[in-house]
Specification:
alpha/beta; Glutaredoxin; two-stranded antiparallel sheet; about 280 residues; disordered C terminus; 2 domains; 5-stranded mixed sheet
């Protein structure tokens, strides 16, 4: 960009703008759609209960039905940063159902009702709860939700079908899956490029033993900037280990983490003692 003084040909100022690629991560369409759903469902709930608010307990049943319907919708896909607005609106509705004075008006829910700001979601980190997700199986043969794997250790394997090490990664994942049989270990291969024809080839090779799922919508949530990315989640849903890239050392470390986790004793429930009479 060049600037010149009035009636002058000489350049008085020149501005050069340079752009550097900070990250190669793309924001896929499903990631955007999930956020839109969160906003739309929360606003739908707010507009639906607003006419009932003034009647308090007398309309508690109707407000409860609207709230339950919204919660049912939210069960089928993972939360986004905008889910916090629904949590706040839920408190407002429950307050009205008890006949108490409702919290601030629904028009403020997306800015954070009562001055609260929605919490930002962050990528999966060791020691934190693994973000829940529901992923479709390639070929349209159903889906899988991480929450349904509770009670089993889970190794999530994000891979790029176009990468040269894909064959080695998936065959190793198959070996880990076989090792985990009878040991409460589930291996989930998630492709970050579901449109690649290579996925169908690998789906045929691995078959029902190791189904492949579409993980393209989880690249932000799970911080997938490099593939493969291996995420080890324990039975309670806590991230226990993260590994990126591929090589002898990565494979060995991941296997050690797997064996160590599988060898951990189960958390026994406290024994119940029958009352003596």
């Amino acid at each position: 960009m060049e600037k010149r003084e009035p009636a002058r040909q000489d350049v008085a100022e020149r501005v050069v703008v340079r752009y550097e690629l900070d990250s190669s991560v793309q924001y896929p369409k499903p990631l955007y759609e999930d956020r839109v759903k969160d906003v739309e469902q929360t606003l739908k709930l707010a507009s639906g209960v607003e006419p009932l608010m003034g009647q308090g307990v007398r309309q508690a049943g109707a407000m409860g039905q609207l709230l339950k319907k919204t919660e049912k919708v939210f069960e089928v896909y993972p939360p986004t940063p905008y889910r916090a607005a629904f949590v706040l609106e839920k408190k407002r509705v429950e307050s009205a159902m008890r006949g108490e004075m409702p919290a601030p008006e629904p028009g403020r829910i997306l800015d954070g009702i009562a001055g609260e700001k929605p919490k930002r979601s962050s990528a999966a980190a060791v020691g934190s709860s693994a973000p829940d997700f529901t992923v479709p199986r390639l070929g349209g043969q159903g889906s899988l939700a991480l929450r349904n794997c509770r009670g089993s250790h889970v190794l999530v394997v994000f891979y790029n079908p176009a990468a040269p090490m894909t064959e080695e990664v998936l065959l190793q994942a198959q070996q880990w899956s076989r090792y985990g049989q009878g040991k409460d270990l589930t291996v989930l291969p998630l492709t970050v490029r579901p449109e690649s024809s290579s996925n169908q080839n690998w789906a045929r090779i691995l078959g029902k033993e190791l189904p492949i799922y579409d993980g393209s919508g989880l690249r932000i949530t799970y911080g997938v900037e490099v593939t493969p990315r291996l995420v080890l989640v324990d039975k309670e849903g806590t991230v226990r280990a993260l590994h990126e890239g591929w090589g002898g050392e990565t494979r060995q470390q991941c296997e050690e983490d797997l064996r160590q986790l599988v060898a951990e004793p189960n958390k026994a429930a406290p024994a119940k003692t029958a009352a003596k009479r």
